[in-house]
Amino acid sequence: MTIRNVLFVGTGNSARSIMAEAYMNHAGRGLYRAFSAGNAPVGEVNPLTLEVLRDVGVRPRNLSSTSWELFALPAAPKMDLVITLCNEVKGLTPPVWPGAPKMHHWPLSDPSEAGISLGRKKAGYLDVFAQVRQHVDALLLQDPPLGALMEHAARGEVIAVDT
Which of 16, 61, 71, 148 is close enough to 85 for a disulfide, judged by CB 3.0 to 4.6 Å? Predict the structure, then answer.
């Protein structure tokens, strides 16, 4: 089975795209390798993003805020799928990525607009993670081998998988 590379693209690459990268690597391990980038990266992952990932049981590993230009370089991994996560990025002309990946758009809300209080901000980040989970899980269910395994697991059935 071929591992598919997915690039999640946001504006600042500090929240939505980072959550999508981390969750796809968590849920799609063995079938998908996820990356994230921004057209105007802020240079660091938002601490609330990392907190929310830990709270929902996704280990935040090797996450960083990077430019989408890095994925247009000759040495960059070839993407099979590029998913934009905000309308601002969807309307921009992206770099030319090697391999002519399929393009999708998931319009996720911006968690930084959730409010001023820490409680409201965290609730906004949790809401965005729920949106990410819903989209990633739907994408994984479209993958025939993984979709079948997830359906068996949902019914409580144990299936042996060769690795």
Answer: 16
Q: Which of 110, 100, 102, 104 lies closest to 90, judged by CA?
A: 104
Q: Which two tokens stand for residue 149?
A: 């395994």
DSSP 3: P
Amino acid at 128: V
Residues of the chain with pLDDT under 70: 1, 114-115, 144-163
Domains belonging to the chain, first-starting first, are: 4-154 (3.40.50.2300)
Q: DSSP character for 128? A: H
- pLDDT per residue over 18-32, tens digit each? 999 999 999 998 889
Q: Can you give the pLDDT at residue 159? A: 45
Residues 102/105/106/110 CA torsion (nearest 10 deg) = 130
Q: Token digits for 93?
A: 């002309």
